[in-house]
Design a protein that fits this description.
InterPro entries: ATP-NAD_kinase_N, C1-like_sf, DGK, Diacylglycerol_kin_accessory, Diacylglycerol_kinase_cat_dom, NAD/diacylglycerol_kinase_sf, PKC_DAG/PE. This protein is of the alpha+beta class. The protein is built from 16 helices and 28 strands. Among the domains are: 153 residues, Rossmann fold, CATH 3.40.50; 188 residues, Sandwich (Tumour Suppressor Smad4). The chain is 33% helix and 23% strand.
């Protein structure tokens, strides 16, 4: 009977049974990896939420990383780790499972001392063991630290000095910290503690308190835009927090400049310096906040401003000697050294007033503040097209090279379409009240600084037609014209000169008809018939670094010397 129930070999029922097994195993082989992947992703997301909760409650500034940039050992279990968490204030590095223990065992940088100190006594060193910087040397025996493949040697999180384990036991247990190389830039925790006590006592004589820190003390405030250019701002914020007091470092996307600059009011008169990490737009934002301080009557606390260029154009930073763009080619410590060596200069700031035609009594004129340049024509059209696409997909425009390639694309397109032709028939131009006759142009550019278009010296030109260097502190504007997008490209590669219209203290431009693209410091818009008036507004105190000179700077300086010799 059992033999009769079994399907005969080769029968249809045996084939269906085999096909069922095949389908079952196929489903298992497909669904099992999918299930395992889903389970792993679920566990990872739970782990990330748990880690974020720990980070949020911790006094350390924890950041997680998938790969450390140098051989790293956990400060808790002393094991070698490839990934884990690090504190971007004190530099502590731990394995993922040791974060809670590290929170209990190690203290982070204190922005203020817990005890109410009324005098600026020297602070003791705050040592952290292991993971010392590469090529660091012991402050006692002058030999290299961190050479052994294990958790060894110490680093002070304030002065950044390093010392061997053996040297620490012998001589450095009770030594005071002098804040190291950047002591003239750091705001000591004891100073803020004393300021807090003075404010409770309703005293404001900060000069006496600061005199104990020396005449060379020029505290630095970092204002970084974490979204600028190549998105380097987030990493820079952590590096500056390690070298300075974390209270001096701000992300302007989270803390507006006007709020961050109130720290200057706790410092001695005319002593503060500000380093703006971002593009020309971020610099303009900070300078507007400085103008607001003047309106509030805080002129004595106005800081001097330096620039670390993270944007695309960076013409203002190039004019001030800080270069065309920062991509990590020099360490952050060298950036701080450059700030200490920089000299103070003035920068003209201009008011751009745009009054729409036909609405003089009904609509309030639009006002802008100009630091770099104003333009109408093909370069403003390129900027307008670029900004329109960047607003749709910001993540695609995080590369400085890609951004310039997009500008090149729109410039090439305009060479064929010529949307701004016959500009001279559409506008009237007045320099210091005198009307100027214009040739057949497509664009007009009004310059305050020496550089334009990502590093081109527009006013001086090239060849036998060179003009004196344009200055950014003489109260004069340089006005030039361009014949189109192709002419702009020729100027940038030094194959042509612009059409120089003249210099003036006041510029007035009347757009009689049609819609034209305009821009102020890289912020473009489409404008109908209007009157544009540019007048001097104020001065900004900037920092000029003479150690960063481009080939254009050197050639322009030599041209000036040749002219003086011939005279």
């Amino acid at each position: 009977m059992e033999a009769e129930r079994r399907p005969a070999p080769g029968s249809p029922s045996e084939g269906l049974f085999a096909d069922g097994h095949l389908i079952l195993w196929t489903l298992c082989s497909v669904l099992l990896p999918v299930f395992i992947t889903f389970w792993c992703s679920l566990q990872r997301s739970r782990r990330q939420l748990h880690r974020r909760d720990i980070f949020r409650k911790s006094k350390h500034g924890w950041r997680d990383t998938d790969l450390f940039s140098q051989p790293t050992y956990c400060c808790v279990c002393a094991q070698h780790i490839l990934q884990g968490a690090f504190c971007d204030c004190c530099g502590l590095r731990v394995d993922e499972g040791c974060v809670r223990k590290a929170d209990k065992r190690f203290q982070c940088k204190e922005i203020m001392l817990k005890n109410d100190t009324k005098v600026l006594d020297a602070m003791p060193h705050h040592w952290i063991r292991g993971n010392v910087p590469l090529c660091s040397y012991c402050m006692v025996c002058k030999q290299q630290c961190g050479c052994q493949p294990k958790l060894c040697d110490y680093r002070c999180i304030w002065c950044q000095k390093t010392v061997h384990d053996e040297c620490m036991k012998n001589s450095l247990k009770n030594e005071k910290c002098d804040f190291g190389e950047f002591k003239n830039l750091i705001i000591p925790p004891s100073y803020l503690t004393s300021i807090n006590q003075m404010r409770k006592d309703k005293k404001t004589d900060y000069e006496v308190l600061a005199s104990k820190l020396g005449k060379q003390w020029t505290p630095l405030i970092i204002l970084a835009n974490s979204r600028s250019g190549t998105n380097m701002g987030e990493g820079l914020l952590g590096e500056f927090r390690i070298l300075l007091n974390p209270v001096q470092v701000f992300d302007v996307t989270k803390t507006p400049p006007i709020k961050a600059l109130q720290l200057c009011t706790l410092l001695p008169y005319y002593s503060a310096r500000v380093l703006v990490c971002g593009g020309d737009g971020t610099v303009g934002w900070v300078l507007d906040a400085v103008d607001d301080m003047k309106i509030k009557g805080q002129e004595k606390y106005i800081p001097q401003v330096a620039v670390l260029p993270l944007g695309t154009g960076n013409d203002l930073s190039n004019t001030l000697g800080w270069g065309t763009g920062y991509a990590g080619e020099i360490p952050v410590a060298q950036v701080l050294r450059n700030v200490m060596e920089a000299d103070g200069i003035k920068l003209d700031r201009w008011k751009v007033q745009v009054t729409n035609k036909g609405y003089y009594n009904l609509r309030k004129p639009k006002e802008f503040t100009m630091n770099n340049y104003f333009s109408v024509g093909p370069d403003a059209l390129m900027a307008l097209n670029f900004h329109a696409h960047r607003e749709k997909a910001p993540s695609l425009f995080s590369s400085r090279i890609l951004n310039k390639a997009v500008y090149l694309f729109y410039g090439t397109k305009d060479c064929l379409v010529q949307e701004c032709k016959d500009l001279n028939k559409k506008v009237e131009l007045e320099l210091d009240g005198e009307r100027v006759a214009l040739p057949s142009l497509e664009g007009i550019i009004v310059l305050n600084i020496g550089y334009w278009g990502g590093g081109c010296r527009l006013w001086e030109g090239m060849g036998d037609e060179t003009y004196p260097l344009a200055r950014h502190d003489d109260g004069l504007l340089e006005v030039v014209g361009v014949y189109g997008s192709f002419h702009c490209a020729q100027i940038q590669v030094k194959l042509a000169n612009p059409f120089r219209i003249g210099q003036a203290h006041t510029v007035r431009l009347i757009l009689k008809c049609s819609m034209m693209p305009m821009q102020v410091d890289g912020e473009p818009w489409a404008q109908g018939p209007c009157t544009v008036t540019i007048t001097h507004k104020t001065h900004a105190m900037m920092l000029y670094f003479s150690g960063e000179q481009t080939d254009d700077d050197i050639s322009s300086t030599s041209d000036q010397e040749d002219i003086k010799e011939t005279e």
